[in-house]
Write a structure and sequence with these properties.
alpha/beta, Rossmann fold, Dihydrodipicolinate Reductase, domain 2, 2 domains, 10 helices
Length: 334
């Protein structure tokens, strides 16, 4: 909400299923109205766009309703619970003729944009393989709450943090068409009483459910022969890893990498020598930058950079990894 206001939006209304939370936001940000039913918010004809940041289960229902109400939509990741829902969102966007921007915040980091320029100018040549990872030793969010309940979230570590790294790798690879996936997911910590941790995002829910993955690994094959290795965890018995997240792209002329999300590297050959480079870049607030981008889209100055179609592609790979794990074989990507 703060970023939206800084980006130039007037916050006309706020909705939360827990009305006291909406009322508090109304007070904190000087918002005109608050409600607990999103349909009430959508009836406001003065609203140009909505930002949907609800549990994954409600993304499709709310995004489609917003588009049908004539609103432009900023939709947080992941796009939906599955690719069928993602297709329904894209169809609603097409029918409404409105804007839908996916909330893929890390694309807006200065480090990522610096590497994107290196790739686009051909410094890697032909990219044939990539790797991306995010390892948390102990990082299960809100154990027992909606994050760890499949009926509400659609998945665990893969759909929560894996979606970020998957999107970044595909973005830097210029979104090649995925054709097949071989993957496995693991749910090793199923009871909060058996889960040893030092800190937790959110609070545990006593007696709550955890029926989602805390570790996932996969190989994605693309139509042009490229491959992508994905490795993500909420909880894993590994030694201290620094950085805990990153990605690499390998090409026939060079490569690029992110160590963490803010340390870009370029690897190439110059004048007969192997050369490593550390690009300088402008540090920005990616959350603010994506709100500025959404504002520019609503003004007709540009088109969404994280598109609905790309959100759908990411969703199709997530679905395929879960399906591959369940069937214990390589599967085609829808």
């Amino acid at each position: 909400m703060k970023n939206a206001q800084t980006a130039g939006f007037t916050l006309a209304a706020v909705c939360d299923a827990h009305l006291p939370a909406a009322e508090q936001a109304k007070k904190d940000f000087g918002i005109a109205s608050a409600c607990s039913d999103y349909r009430e918010l959508l009836r406001n004809k003065d609203i140009d766009g909505v930002i949907i940041g609800t549990p994954n289960k409600f993304h499709a229902e709310q995004a489609i309703a917003a588009l049908e109400a004539g609103k432009n939509v900023f939709l947080e990741k992941p796009m939906a619970m599955n690719v069928t829902e993602a297709d329904a969102i894209v169809a609603a966007r097409n029918k409404a003729g409105k804007i839908l921007q996916m909330g893929m915040v890390n694309r807006f980091k200065g480090s990522v944009q610096a590497l994107k320029h290196f790739v686009e100018t051909g410094r890697c040549g032909s990219v044939y393989s990539a790797q991306t990872f995010w390892y948390r030793r102990r990082g299960i969010p809100g154990f027992g709450g909606w994050f760890t309940t499949k009926a509400m979230s659609g998945g665990g570590a893969l759909i929560d943090i894996g979606v970020h790294m998957l999107d970044l790798a595909l973005y830097l690879m210029d979104f090649p068409k995925p054709v097949a996936v071989s993957g496995m997911t693991y749910n090793m910590w199923q009871e909060v009483g058996r889960y040893t941790y030092t800190s937790m995002w959110g609070s545990p829910t006593p007696g709550g459910k955890k029926d989602v993955d805390d570790y996932a690994v996969a190989v994605v094959r693309f139509e042009g022969g490229q491959t992508l290795n994905v490795n993500v965890s909420w909880a894993l018995n590994v030694g201290f890893m620094q950085p805990e997240q990153g990605l690499r792209l390998m090409g026939d002329k060079g490569g690029v990498a992110l160590e963490g999300l803010d340390s870009p590297h370029v690897y190439s050959e110059e004048a007969g020598h192997i050369v490593d480079m550390r690009p300088y870049f402008t540090n920005v607030d990616p959350g603010l930058e994506e709100m500025k981008h959404f504002a520019a889209c609503l003004k007709g100055e540009t088109k969404p950079m994280p598109t609905a179609e790309q959100g759908r592609t990411v969703q199709s790979i997530l679905d395929a990894i879960y399906r591959s794990s369940a069937e214990k074989r390589e599967v085609a990507v829808e």
